[in-house]
Amino acid sequence: MSTTPIDNNSRAPVTVRTLRHMKEEGEKIAMLTAYDASFAHVLAEAGVDIVLVGDSLGMVVQGHDTTVPVRVDDMVYHTRCVAARAGHMLIMADMPFMSFRDPVHALDNATRLMQEGGAHMVKLEGAVTEVVAALAGQGIPVCGHLGLQPQSIHKLGGYRVQGRDSEAAAAMREDALRMQDAGADMILLECVPVDVAREISEELAVPTIGIGAGPHCDGQVLVLQDLLGITPGRRPRFAQDFLSESTEPGGIPAAIARYVTAVKEGRFPDARHSFE
Questions:
Q1: How confident is the model at residue 116 (pLDDT cuts 50, 70, 90)?
Q2: CA 124, CA 149: separation in Å to the nearest integer?
Q3: Active site residues per annotation
Q4: Torsional sign, CA 133, 138, 139, 145
C-alpha cells in the first residue's frame, strides 16, 4: 500500500461546505490533533482534512492528568502555531473548561480563538444548544462533542463508554439532533457503542467524527501522540500505533499518511478499536 504524501500545494482549502459534501458523497474525513507548526505541516502534507488543536494538549504537552487546567490563552497560542503551517486543512480549536459557560463568555472566547488563533471552527463539549445557537448566529462554525466528555471526567468518575443502555443512547441521539438544529456544523462522538454512533451518523445531515465510536462515523480523529505510540501509560483501546506497528519505512510522515489512507479506505477503525 503506497503512503506517498499527497501534493497539497494545489489542494483547495477544506471548509464546512467541503465536509458536508464529503458526507454526502461517502468520502471519509481524516482528522488528527496537532499543537505546533512543524506537525501541522506534516499533517497537511499527509492529506489530513481537519487539524484539531485539542485541549488534550493539557495532557500530552503540559503533562496534566486531565484537560481541565487548560486555559483559553493556551488554546490561542497553540492554535496560532498550528495555523502558521496548516495549509489546506480546516483548523478546529477546542474551547477549554468553563470557557463557554454561557453565550457571552462563549462568544468572547470563540472570537479570540478565531481572531488571535486563526481557528476556522470551535469545538465544545456537551449538549449546550443555547451556546451553539449563539455562536452559529454570529457566523462561527461549531463542532459539538458528545459521548465521553473529558472536561467532565471528575463528574463521570473515569474514562467510560457512554450510551450503552437504551435510555442513554436515546438521549444522546436527541442531543445530537438538537445540536444540529441549533446550528452545529459537525458532531464528534467519543467512546460510543458502534450501533449508537451508526444511528446518529445516519440521522444527522451534518458530518460525524468518531473516536472510539466505530467505523460508521463520517470521519475519524486520533490524538497524534496516540497514533505515534508515544503517549505515556496504557494506550486507549480505540487508538492504533501507526508508527511502530508497520514494517514500512518513512518514519513519522509515513505513519501519518498510513493513518489517512486507512481512514479513507475504511480500514480504520475496526472491531479492535470499537465498543459494543
A1: very high
A2: 9
A3: 190
A4: negative
Q: Which CATH class is domain 16-273?
A: alpha beta
Helical (H) or strand (E) element with 144:
strand 142-147
State how far the Cα of 67 lies from the Cα of 60, in Å rounded to an integer: 10
Exposure string of 158-182, with b = 16+ CB inside 10 Å and e = fewer, is eeebbbeeeeebeebbebbbebbeb
> How far lies 174's CA from each of 65, 161, 189, 217, in Å?
31, 18, 13, 17
The Cβ of residue 17 has, within 10 Å, a number of other Cβ atoms equal to 9
Say if CB 20 and CB 206 are below 8 A apart: yes
Strand partners, 90: 50
Structural domain boundaries of the chain?
Answer: 16-273
- Residue 5, pLDDT above cutoff 60: no
Question: Could you report the per-residue pLDDT of 187-244, keeping only the tens digit for each?
Answer: 999 999 999 999 999 999 999 999 999 999 999 999 999 999 998 887 889 999 999 8
pTM confidence score: 0.94
